[in-house]
Structure formats: C-alpha cells, structure tokens
Amino acid sequence: MNQKAKEELKQEFVQKLYGEFSTYREHLLSENPTDLIAEAYKIETFSSLYEVLLSKSAQLSDVALLNLLNMSSGILEGMYRKWLGVKDHSYQELEEYVGHEVEDLEGYDLPEAV
After folding, report:
1. Phi then psi dihedrals of residue 72, to 5 deg
2. What pLDDT score does 72 carry?
3. DSSP three-state, residue 86
4. For residues 36 and 28, is the Cβ–Cβ distance under 8 A?
5. What is the mean pLDDT of residues 8-14?
6. pLDDT, tens digit, for every residue of 13-24?
7. Rg (CA), the chain
C-alpha cells in the first residue's frame, strides 16, 4: 500500500472513531441520571478506548486498521465487548495496595479505637 493510501486509511479510521465516540456522547446526553449511573463503567471504558486507539492510530498496521474499520458492531462497541471478556486485575491490584498500606500502618503506635 502506498503512503497516500495509508494516510487516507488512517484518516478514515480516525474519522470513524471520532464519529462513533461523538454519537455515543450525544446518546448519553439524552439519558436520565439513573441510566447514566448504570452505564458508568461503559462510559469510562469507551472514553479510555477512544483515547488509546486515537493515540495508537499512527502506529497501527494497514491490516489492523482495516479490521477495526470492518468491525460489524463498530470499533468502540466491538473493543468494549472484547474487553468485557478480559479478566480485570484492578481489584486485585487495589487489594494488594490496601494490604501493603495496612501492613505499613501496623508499625505505627496508634491508640486502639474504643
């Protein structure tokens, strides 16, 4: 693929990604607060996916770009669905952090709660 075609493919990807994210944001504006709270994880994940994909768009191969552009459910929704199948380690990391903090606090000579 020549350089001009590569640039056009990357521009098409960025435009589609932006369009999907904008459409999703517009959809959120019409939601009621209860639904927004229920969808908080998806909102945060879509936002993160958008930022990561946008920042990596220059390094993506032509094949990756074409596959992303051809995701039947859309780029963000497709990546989100795949992400839901990945075991998230953030709870485990938080648990380890709290464990270390508690261990550190065990060394302090604080009066016990009555």
Report:
1. -65, -30
2. 92
3. coil
4. yes
5. 94
6. 999 999 999 999
7. 21
